[in-house]
Prior knowledge:
Radius of gyration: 23 Å
Shape: globular
Distance between the termini: 42 Å
Number of helices: 13
CATH topology of the largest domain: Nucleotidyltransferase, domain 5
Structural class: alpha/beta
CATH architecture of the largest domain: 2-Layer Sandwich
CATH class of the largest domain: Alpha Beta
Largest sheet: 5 strands, mixed
Order of helices and strands: HEHHEEEEEHEHEHEEEHHHHEHEHH
Number of domains: 3
Strand order of the largest sheet: 6-5-4-7-8
Amino acid sequence: xxxxxxxxLLHLAWxxxxxxxxxLVRETGLAPSTVSGVVSxxxxxxxxxxxxxxxxxxxxxxxxLRFDEExxxxxxxxxxxxxxxxxxxxxxxxxxxxxxxxHPVRSDPHGALERVVALVGEVLAETGVGLDAVLGxxxxxxxxxxxxxxxxxxxxxxxxxxxxxxAAWLAERLQIPVRVDNDANLCALAEAWHGAGKEQPxxxxxxxxxxxxxxxxxxxxxxxxxxxxxxxIGHTAIDSxxxxxxxxxxxxxxxxxxxxxxxxxxGPDPKGKPRSLAQVxxxxxxxxxxxxxxxxxxxxxxxAAIANLxxxxxxxxxxxxxxxxxxxxxxxxALRESVRERPLWAALASADVVLSELGDRTAALGAATLLLQxxxxxxxxxxxxxxxxxAGSTDSARRVRA
Length: 402
């Protein structure tokens, strides 16, 4: 019961930013003595502080409590197939420091994890934040994540990572809690908390890059499915006579709108040079015919998948992210037309398909938000009753770099 009350009051304080003890009593129905005791503990732990006396028309003015968003920090890491991005955030998931580097993550697991540790050391040294002031690390991975075994990545999708447990490895190396989830799930979480899906009851996010993944947020929580495979939209069959997919099926969405398919259809640039997905998308936005054709072709197939998604889950909004979205309106126009051609359009009457507002930082921000959500729900799992050290310890930052 004490843990429940602590989480309840902490979450209300986080939402409000500033709130009095009397307001917490009114909001929760808890006894004033219970609220006072929990607040005193949260102040001792460094999550809340007394700010100022509120204005009053009479009587003793109440003391306003402020959620202390700067006392502690969070780390969010996005392990992509070919890159590593890391964000250091405060307890509002506002980015304080950022790093992104190219790395063959898919084929080099141990090198990738060592690079994460190095990046952590860099951002702590840059900001002067001590490791003792970091409550944990959220990790996004390009693999389905089974809630029952979250640290076992799919050997079919990431064969080089078989037997590698990234959360346990990083937790032991950094001596902080680590939580792991699928990268598209974390993108959806970031959009629901901070981006285009904010204040929406249900959000679907589709990541368009090397592969195609999706994440779903229902009333603030990630929808994992029974074994973590909810959202594998890239392996839904769109065209049974289409190209062979790595999963064994034909015509999966990934074979039609993934980066390899889009790049192949667009061909080289006008000078005959090969190009990346982002380059194709930007060329389409400028109206180059070959690139435009490739993006519109992808958009039509994506529209078919989104129509199925709306019919099955009817999300409030679908947010698109990833390299292909640099094409902008040509992509949106093609997919919206494709959706409208399909039955049950009425299910989309109050919904929309929009582009991400968070850009290439979405997954890392979502990883930090995963930790923030856990801290607000389970503060006892992340905080000792009294912080042993003050933020800014150079010794802890030095330990990470060593």
